[in-house]
Amino acid sequence: MHEKQWNRRRVLTTGGRAAAAVALGSLLAGTRTADAAVARRFDLFGSVHSLLWNKTILPGTVIQSFGFDNLRGHLYFVQVLDEVGAAPAGRLHVTRTDLAGNVLGDMILRDRAGRGWGHGMSLAVESTPRHVRLWVEVDGAVRTDGLDCTGRALARIPFVDGATFTPDSAGLEKHRLIRGATDVTCTLDPVNNRLVQRYVVAGRARYAVYSLDEVIAGTYHPVAWFAEPVLEQPYRPGRRPIEVFVEVQGYAAYDRHLYILAANLQDDAHLTTVDLRSGRVVQQRSLDSGPSAVFSHVHRKAEGMAIQQTGGSARLCYGFAGGDAGARTTTISYVESMA
pTM of this prediction? Predict the structure, then answer.
């Protein structure tokens, strides 16, 4: 989120009950790898482990999202650029690290001619033996409140250490999958080689599923789409009343399920599993993201989700930003148990 919004979240999620438009039986049939012949779902109530704990990446602003290059053992982080006016202009800072969070390089995404990138809510990493491409929102427009910028299209760009890209730079591809969509971001499913785009049309958040290869080729035919389900904070007996409106802070796709990280206006976060075949909520888990005796800072904010593949297993990772203004830190936790 914008630094000025550290203690305030806007309500972006307006979807009602999920309404799946297309079943995914044919979508997934025959596309999974051999080790994924049976649909697998992360158990949100499995044991939680830590990948990074209070690690300083770039201290000026909070992380917005992150993604893994699982082939090379790298992490990529997106943050709003640490300068005045960066958020409404859509200026972003991309950092590459090793899996311990040690910085290996960075690049800048800067606005030009009134067009920026966005807020960086979701970063997707396309990793092959030949190349790495990052997927991030682009052609951003300032929101009506004047505090933030969100993308209208997706950009597929190489990571170039020390480089500065603008929305018009050579070497990047743009993909506008749905005409008239705003708040455009995406994630990649490493099992089925699918791209899942989150977007807003007519004030309602939705998701659409595509073949990644077809998108790269410029063919934009969604094989499934559904409205974002109601992301109510799970009820916790004995706790104070929970604000039900939430803001999505990240999402990740794995095989037949979508995983959403969201937080309410009281800064309580939760995870939600959604069945991509129906758009229905399968499981939810509350995460105490407010003041915590086991967390060394007064605040921590839910920021980002990604799938890490390591060996023959996978991890559902979700991030938190912590620390004080000008000294932000990053924590990444994960679950790996399958239901």
Answer: 0.88
